[in-house]
Amino acid sequence: MIQKITDNSELQLAWAIRREVFVVEQNCPEEIEWEFEEESTHFLAKLAEEPVGTARYRETANGFKLERFAVLEKARHKGVASALVQTLVNELKDKNKLLYLHAQLSAAPLYAKFGFKPKGENFWEADIEHVKMEWWKD
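RE: above sequence
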């Protein structure tokens, strides 16, 4: 189940998931993890009522940037990430703006399944190789 976060207690759960995945597991610098929180729309994924994943989007000058997709290790390969991507795309697809994200290379195939296409050269962010991917409504 994916739900839009509507209160601070849910946001704290999402932040705990992001801290576990990005800061602890992937060793990303904590200071870059907490940018643009106030202007973002956050989502929480649950399996059997347990919070296991999160993602967010925010509007930028370029369109809508989808970001901070994180799923706890114990919940991976159970469709959580796919459900998060589908939920955000469904929420934004009728807004007639570009949807884009910076995908870790290991996650790029997941986003490609939903119609995101690589754009430009690969780049490094937080010591992890990424590629920009874009989605336009057909």
